[in-house]
Design a protein that fits this description.
- The complex is a heterodimer of chains A (about 300) and B (about 190).
- Chain A contains 3 helices and 15 strands.
- By secondary structure, chain A is mostly beta strands.
- The N terminus and C terminus of chain A are likely disordered.
- Chain B has about 190 residues and is an all-alpha fold.
- Chain B has one domain.
- A two-stranded antiparallel sheet of chain B has the order 1-2.
- Chain B is globular.
- The model of chain B has no long low-confidence stretch (mean pLDDT about 95).
- Classes of the chains: A mainly beta (about 300), B mainly alpha (about 190).
- At the A-B interface, strand 11 of A face helix 8 and helix 10 of B.
Amino acid sequence: MAERSVAPKSKRSPEEEAQKPAPVAPPLLGNRAVSRAVVKVSPPQGRGLHPDSSMVARVALAGQRVLARAPTKIESYGTFEIDNYDPVDTDKDNDTTKSCGINIDVKYTPPPHIKSNKIGFVQMMKCLKGDGTPLLFDNEVPRATDAASGDAGWAIDRLKGKKWGYYGMEDSGAGGGNLTLGSRTDKDNSVDAKMHDKITLGRQVGKTAGCTAMTFAIDIEHGKYLGGFGWGYSVDATGKVTGNELKEVEMGEVQEAAIKAWNAQSKLKDAAKRNAADQQLLPEAKILGDFNFDPNAETRYA
Amino acid sequence: MEASGVLLRSLDSVDPFWNEDARPIFPAEAMRLLEGVPEVEAELLAVATDTEQPLARRFAAVEALFQGGWTDWRTGPQAPAIAGVMAEAIRADGIHNRWGLPGHFVGRSGKDLLSIQDGVEEALAPLLDDDKRLMIHGSETATVAEGAGYRVADLAGYLLAERRGEAFGEDPDPAARDRIIARLREP
C-alpha cells in the first residue's frame, strides 16, 4: 500500500500553473503498440436519431481520428484500470459561466487471494463552488462531513432516491447502467467490477471550481473495503479544466467520517432527509490514514 | 430606497437560471430585504405576472415567493399564470436539478410547481414537444441523466405523471419514454 496522501503546496506561479499542460496518462505500451481508433460518435439530440455505421465512417473519413490511450493502471489492493479520463468543459478553456467536470471509466480486478461473490464501489467526494465553500445538493447536506471530522463537505456519491451506498447499484442490489458488479471465486477465476462516472458541475465566470473524489472497491459480501484511488478535477480562474493526478489512496479519517455520516443519514427520523426512505447502512471502515488535504490543489501524491 | 426599488434590486441580484446546488437561490440578506417590503406577496406576484418584465425577473419573483413562504396565491386566480412562468423557466434554465430527474425524483422547484392548484397541466403540456436536453449537474446524477439523454419533454412528462399519480419509470430508452409521453398528452 502506498504512503498516506499529502497535498504539497505548489511552487509554481499562477501563470505557470495556467500554462501547465493537462496531465496525460503515462503510456503502458510503446508507441507502436498504441492503436488508432475512431472516437465513438455521441448520439445527436432528438428522438429516434442514432448514428449508424455510415455516419461513423463519414466522421472517420473526415480525418477525425484520435490516439487511443492505454488505460492508467493503479496497483492497490487489487488493480484499478482507469480509462477515458477526460475533462468535461461545455465552453472549452473559455472564462465563462459553464459546466465542467471529468469523465472516468474504472475497471477493478480483485486481488487473487480474496473470495467474494459481490464486489462494487463506494465513492465519496468533496466539490467546491467559486466562493470556496462546498457544493452540496440537498440530499447530500444531511450526510456531508463537518469541520469536526477534519474537512467539511465530503459526502458519499449516490443518486437521490437510491437506498444503497454503493455507487451505481439498483435498489434490487443488482448492478446498473453505470455499474458492473465483480466477483472472485478463486485465484484463477474472477469478474472485474466496472463503473462509469462523469462529474458535471457549475463553474462561474472568473471563479475556480473543482472536485476531489476517492473511489474504493468493496467486497460487499463481507463488508470489507479493498483498494482505492483518488481522482477529480479543478478549474482555474481562466476557465481551464485539469484532471487531478490519478493516485492510489488509503481511506482516512475524513472518508471514514463520510461513511458514518451516510449511516447517520439513514437513521434520520425525518425520512425526507434520507437519501431514500429505506436507506441502507454502509460497512464502516478501519482507519488507515488521513487525507485531509486541499481539494483545490491541482496535484496530490500518495 | 423605495420598496419597489428594493424588491427589484433583490430580484435582480441573483441569476435565477444558474442554480448550482438546486437549493433556494436567495441569500439570507436578500430575503431579509424582501421581508421588509410592504405587501411583499402582492408585490412579487405583480412582477411575476407582468408579461412586460423579463422572464428572469419574473421567475426570480416566483422563486422568492416560494422561498419566503408567501404562497397563498397557489389556490387563487393568478396560479395558472405563475405555473406558466415556471414552465417557461424550465425551458430557459441553465441547470435543471432543481426541477428533478425524470423517473427518479422531483426536485425543490418541481415540488413547488406541483403544489399549485390550477394551470399546471396546461403549462406543462407544450413542453412535451421540447427535445432540448436537460442540463443535470452532479456526479452519479449527471451520469445517469446523460446516459438516458433526458430532455425537457421527459421532465415535463415526469412532472405530469407525478401530478396524476401515474408511473413514468426509469427507462433509459428515449423511444420508450416517448410512448409514455404520448399517453400523457391525453388529458
